[in-house]
TrEMBL record:
It comes from Fodinibius salsisoli. Pfam families: Methyltransf_13, Methyltransf_14, Methyltransf_23. The keyword Methyltransferase applies. One of its GO terms (biological process) is methylation. Keywords: Methyltransferase, Transferase. GO terms for molecular function: methyltransferase activity. Residues 12-73 form the Methyltransferase putative zinc binding domain. It comes from the Bacteria. Residues 253-411 form the C-methyltransferase domain. This is Methyltransferase domain-containing protein.
Length: 427
């Protein structure tokens, strides 16, 4: 069941310029986190165009057809706490903000898109006042069950007014992987203007467009992600609201992210670091301010698809069995774009009990508990959340006992042996 959306005269959600330059066209797919209940298996699913454009004026990469956030988050199945490495990332962030930015029990912390309280729980341990903003009932309730004060609302100007009146202005506002999820970005940043104290700071993490392009991470494109940011693009948005990005850190989360540090322009305590200047320079040199630069990405995506299918067909023709690990949103983009179903992958597994005994959207691949791998003893485990490959390979290296190996799809399809790997993959 394909949802018809007119793709004519689409305007940039930042500057209003008509979007005419295609970045990636992944066809039409269902919502990536719309996990299917067994009783709904034969009812069909809506599909929405997944076509991404780049604005020739502000170089903001964005989806063309916009699915309402109310639809996307009505029954949200993604819980942040099921990744050990992501919890460790959150814990280290809290320690950093306490150690370097003097966030203490006299401070007030707000997290936008706080999910199941995965991060704010560490501020709670330090007795630092806080609350979270989370629009999805399923994960908001999980946070409340942990004792994390949580407001179940979408954030914007109107929300910010009521939250500031109910609580107080914030010394620290943070948001991990939220900027991409907000269709009305100026209403969102306008809300930050209202809620942030004069001397307060903000941090936001998001996948860096440079990493997406260079490593062909097309599977990070899905309907929840309205935007795909370069530092140039996000800087222009915050600048228009009286903010400055005074520092930036490069992270290995989500296959390559950046964390921006933001304050009001009037905050003279915060000087713009060399990191900001360096990354802006790198983006300019590599072509991120040149519209022609963006036109080659779709060809690279199509080639990766052909290479992945060739590998899978080769192994299936040998009689090999393949199962998946994980049920992430990115995995569903990859499976549906490449046309991979149970003809290639018998099932997948996930630690999240909210996904187990359900089916992936579109491909309808069944989802089981991780123990199912030991029972099935497959020849290959296809790691769908490839950004967590080290963590997953270490957890499941037992597949080597029967000669099992791993398939990693990004940045190029490859087979890897089952062995302990150094380091911990970060969410």
């Amino acid at each position: 069941m394909r949802e018809n959306n007119t793709l004519q005269d689409i305007e940039c959600r930042n500057c209003g310029k008509e979007l005419i330059h295609s970045f990636a066209d992944l066809g039409a797919t269902p919502l990536c986190n719309e996990i299917i209940n067994p009783e709904e298996l034969n009812r069909g699913q809506k599909e929405y165009p997944l076509h991404v454009y780049v604005c020739e004026e502000c170089f903001l990469v964005q989806v063309g057809a916009c699915v309402s956030p109310e639809v996307i988050y009505s029954d949200y199945s993604y819980f942040s706490s099921y990744s050990d490495s992501w919890l460790d990332h959150a814990r280290r962030y809290v320690d950093t903000m306490i150690g370097l930015y003097n966030i203490n029990p006299n401070s007030f912390v707000v997290e936008i898109a706080s999910n199941d309280g995965y991060l704010l729980q560490y501020f709670k341990e330090k007795n630092i006042p806080h609350f979270g903003v989370e629009p999805s009932n399923t994960v908001a309730q999980a946070a409340l069950n942990k004792g994390i004060p949580t407001e179940e609302v979408f954030f914007g100007k109107q929300t910010a007014d009521s939250l500031r009146e109910k609580y107080q202005e914030a010394d620290l506002i943070l948001g991990n992987n939220v900027l991409a999820h907000v269709p009305n970005i100026h209403d969102f940043v306008g809300g930050l203007e209202i809620l942030l104290g004069d001397k307060g700071i903000m941090t936001f993490e998001f996948p860096h467009l440079m990493q997406l392009v260079e490593n062909i991470q097309f599977d990070t494109i899905y309907h929840e992600h309205f935007f795909y940011y370069s530092l140039h693009a996000v800087q222009s948005i915050f600048k228009s609201h009286g903010f400055k990005i005074f520092d930036v850190q490069e992270l290995n989360t989500h296959g390559g992210s950046i964390r921006i540090f933001v304050s009001r322009k009037t905050n003279t305590q915060r000087k713009i670091s060399d990191n900001v200047k360096r990354i802006l320079h790198d983006e300019k040199v590599k072509g991120y301010l040149n519209i022609e630069f963006y036109t080659t990405f779709n060809k690279n995506v199509q080639q990766l698809k052909r290479d992945l299918l060739s590998l899978l067909i080769q192994e299936k023709n040998k009689g090999k069995s393949i199962v998946g690990y994980g049920a992430p949103g990115k995995g569903n983009t990859l499976l549906n774009f490449c046309g991979i179903g149970t003809d290639f992958m018998d099932f997948t597994v996930d630690r999240n009990p909210h996904k187990q005994d359900h089916f992936l959207p579109g491909s309808l691949i069944p989802i089981y508990q991780p123990e199912k791998i030991m029972e099935a003893k497959p020849d290959y485990v296809f790691i769908l959340p490839w950004n967590l490959k080290r963590e997953i390979m270490n957890q499941t290296n037992y597949i080597g006992e029967w000669g099992g190996k791993f398939i990693i799809p990004i940045p190029y399809p490859r087979i890897m042996p089952a062995q302990k790997v150094k380091g911990v993959g970060v969410h």
